[in-house]
Design brief:
The chain has about 350 residues and is α/β, with parallel strands linked by helices. It contains 11 helices and 14 strands. The strands form 3 sheets. It has a 10-stranded mixed β-sheet, covered by helices on one side. It has a two-stranded parallel sheet with strand order 1-2. A two-stranded antiparallel sheet has the order 7-8. Bound molecules: S-adenosyl-L-homocysteine (SAH) and iron/sulfur cluster.
């Protein structure tokens, strides 16, 4: 059975016409989905019960089902979502002052297998379909009663390895006829999959790109990201330049801080140099324990690392963990269940 969000407005209109419905019905249903954050067919109060029933027999409203919700003391809410084949993914709702960010997954598992990350521990199971990514988004909207201010694709999976479906989902999220979110409010995070970065650059859209660099040189990087799907830093940064020029967006370098591996003052200076040369910002993410052999550096080391980058004149922020008290790191909740 198809999911209703797979249909375009034109397709929905044609289907309802064929069912003998007046043309404004399609528009009403469309508005429930894309303007009023309906969570089910039943929510569509100005559509007759009979028609809702007929629609429900023809199309599923969503392909994701919430099966667990874990709230942290800081307000972050992590949802475990079940898919039609029983697979599990995660999405996170992150409130900060008046703004809300959704963190969405793009794959079931991840083929890259960064050694500190719970998402890639059992490799890739499958890509998410466009309607499953939209389903995550709709679940968050139904929970919060509104659209988020920002979306980051920093959940489970390497989005650029599921390029077509990710981009179809971004189109649904941004096109005026659908959810109509600003493209500048969306960030795609990649472990540095160069062909995907270059393909994305060709779109010349003002989508934000975050690159998980994690190391200032290939030697250190190879201790963190295994060789399977990893590119030399020089190629990644070349692709980052292309992206910045074509899309007119400053890229962010994400850097998971791992004690004794990539957190030395020399590494900080070298990272600052790369960021400066390529006009990038730096986002430091102290390691969130996932049961790997890595350790989170002390606060003193983290602060020192940040200071070196800051003093080099590079914009730097530290992502103080949100939701870490309740299995907050990416892919952890799912991993605990498998
Ligand atoms: N696959 C993409 C996007 C998902 S991961 C990527 O790697 O960029 C999003 C970010 O969370 C990445 O920067 C990743 O390095 C970081 N991350 C994952 N697990 C983490 C952990 N246990 N501690 C700290 N950062 C983590
Ligand atoms: Fe995959 Fe990103 Fe986790 Fe690496 S950090 S295993 S690329 S999800």
């Amino acid at each position: 059975m198809k999911i209703i969000t797979e249909l375009t407005l034109a397709e929905l209109t044609a289907e309802l016409k064929a069912m003998g419905e007046p043309s404004f019905r399609a528009k009403q249903i469309h508005e429930w989905i894309y303007r009023k954050n309906a969570a089910s067919w039943d929510a569509m109060s100005n559509i007759s019960k009979d028609l809702r029933q007929k629609c429900a027999e023809k199309w599923k409203f969503t392909s994701v089902e919430e099966c667990e919700s874990v709230k942290s003391s800081d307000g972050t809410e992590k949802l475990l979502l079940k898919l039609h084949d029983g697979e599990l993914i995660e999405m996170v709702i992150i409130p900060a002052e008046k703004r809300i960010t959704f963190c969405l997954s793009t794959q079931v598992g991840c083929p890259v297998g960064c050694l500190f990350c719970a998402s890639g521990r059992n490799g890739l199971t499958r890509n998410l379909a466009m309607h499953e990514i939209i389903g995550e988004f709709q679940t968050g909207c139904a929970k919060t009663g509104r659209l988020p201010d920002n979306i980051v694709f920093m959940g489970i999976g390497e989005g650029l390895l599921n390029y077509e479906n990710l981009l179809s989902a971004i189109e649904r999220l941004t096109e005026n006829e659908y959810f109509g979110m600003g493209v500048r409010r969306i960030t795609v995070s990649t472990s540095g999959f160069v062909p995907g970065m270059l393909k994305l650059a060709e779109r010349q859209q003002e989508l934000n790109l975050a690159i998980s660099l994690h190391a200032p040189n290939d030697e250190i990087r190879s201790k963190i990201i295994p060789g399977k799907i990893s590119y030399p830093i020089s190629e990644i940064m070349e692709a980052a330049d292309v992206y910045r020029e074509k899309c007119n967006r400053m890229v962010t370098l994400e850097y998971t801080l791992l004690d004794g591996i990539n957190d030395s003052p020399d590494a900080a200076s070298a990272l600052a140099e790369i960021a400066r040369k390529h006009h990038a910002k730096v986002n430091l993410i102290p390691y969130n324990d996932t049961g790997s052999d890595f350790k989170r550096p002390s606060d003193k080391k983290i602060n020192k690392f940040e200071q070196i980058i800051d003093r080099a004149g590079v914009a730097v922020s530290v992502r103080r963990e949100r939701g870490s008290d309740r299995a907050g790191a990416c892919g952890q909740l799912r991993h605990q269940r498998s």
